[in-house]
Amino acid sequence: MKKYIQEHKYVLLVLYLPIYLIWFALVERMVPSTEGCFVSYLPLDDKIPFLPGFILAYVLWYPFLIVPVVVTLLKDDRRAFIRYAAFIIAGFSISLTICMIWPNCQLLRPSVVDTSTLCGWLVNAIYSADTPTNVLPSMHVVGCMAVLAVTFDSKYLKKMRIPAVIIAVAICAATVFVKQHSILDVFAALALSLVLYLIIYVAARTGRSRRETEQRNG
User: Contact 115/163 with Cβ under 8 angstroms?
Assistant: First the structure.
């Protein structure tokens, strides 16, 4: 293992996970209630129904983020892994920083959830574990966009592209259908993800192509 890490130092980027979890927990403690927070809301939220069945898509987010890590590491796709890690690290860090500087919340959750069904029970469990604070931008959406970016970046994830798009859309829809987020959180996350994609993928790829051209002509 030590030799592997020495030869693949980029794998150490996975250490951001415990940092993120600790950081997220601290931010949650900093904003324990919705009192005094900016309320994330758009009138469109009132037209979006509460559909507890979408909780099954919502919880897919966790394995969805892990699959590209496993594949790119097993295939030693260094560039794809590093870009994916950069997207996740930058996206989640910016989101948490925004929540620290600008405490926010949403007030869209139903007052009562029918827990007699599996989906209702899961929704209630998520509500109990995750407060309706620190929602803007949605890290669920940022994470989905990161997965889509690496899926279309790595040749080893080519077969996963269409399923990844379907799953990402379902997860993003789930964030508002299970009332974990306002649609405003989704829009903010998409805007942040676009900026990150342009910097990490488009600008970096353009810069690399320019350097390769200069080396060939040099």
Answer: no
